[in-house]
Amino acid sequence: MITKNILKQPKSIVEVTITVPWTDLQVIWDQTLQKMAADLELPGFRKGTAPLPMVEQNLGNKLQDEVFKTAMPEFLIEALKGIDIIPIDYPKYDLISFAKGGEVQFKATITNRPQVTVGTYKTIKVTKPTTKPVTDEEVQKVIDDLYKRWKVRQSSVVSNQSSATQNQNTTGQGGSINFQGGGQSQIQTPTNGQTDGPDDTFAKAMGATTLADLKNKIRKDLEANVSYNNELDFEEAILQEVEKMTTVEIPEILIQDELNRMLVSLQRRVADMGLLLEDYLKGQGKTLEQLKTEWRVQAEKNVRMELGLADIARQENVVISDEELKAEIDKIQDARVKKQFEAQEQRLHLRHALRQTRTLDLLKKMVGG
User: Fold this and answer.
1) pLDDT at 319 over 70
2) Same domain as 130, residue 62
3) Within a domain: 169
């Protein structure tokens, strides 16, 4: 029977020292030895036929390492049964002592799920931003911008057509250049009845039926964008209130995870600008560590908000069923992306994200948005 000693440290770090008698370890030892022996080929023996004592001697520390790779997690799980400790990271194992035939002692260092306390979230007061109407000037600005870019493309097409016509006029039969007179060729830019400014021809090129129809479509798009951004601002205001009323001693690993997430987000934005992260940092005159130091306060707020929202989900019994999870995965059109969710870890991440989203929707109803 294993014995354990649990030492809780600040920031949810827990050290579990576990002592295992040989009788409990021997089964795993023998199973591992037989498995490794089946794949081992020694001089004078066919693969998998060498005597186990000879195999054990040949494997040396490799056998011990493989045994503990299997045994330590199993014994840690057993040691944590019935205890309110839930690891949120991969344990770090340290072998303290071992001799075959005797007991083994090792230490597992884990980060426990932190204790979270959220204030009276049902009394959160947030005013939803007022939706500002889209003005004619804003619509016209989009029209003008589209028109300028369209005119550039049209000029390029006309230029290519002109070059082709000019080549035809200066080339005689048999491919020889025509040196005969006849005056300079004048090339007219086709107008097709087009006026100097946005018109129905331009609107049709943009996928509308008329210029009035194009303006109407643009107005609807701008209104939808305003509404979407207002909703994001409303959600952000609620989450900020959740963060303010959440009390938790944040584990360092969660802060580092959030900093890494923020870094990945920056890398994507920088890549969109056609830059490498190293070049961006040089331009800012900062190192990666300096950047992370500047971000740390925001990272802590993000983690506190995330943990607070998760605790509200627990209190409100927000659950994502297997059927709901499957339905969400089925919506994915890209086969490669969809295949990623065959892995249990990815499914857990998606379930958590859906649970957080549903909890936020619940808070929005409480607030009255």
Assistant:
1) yes
2) no
3) no
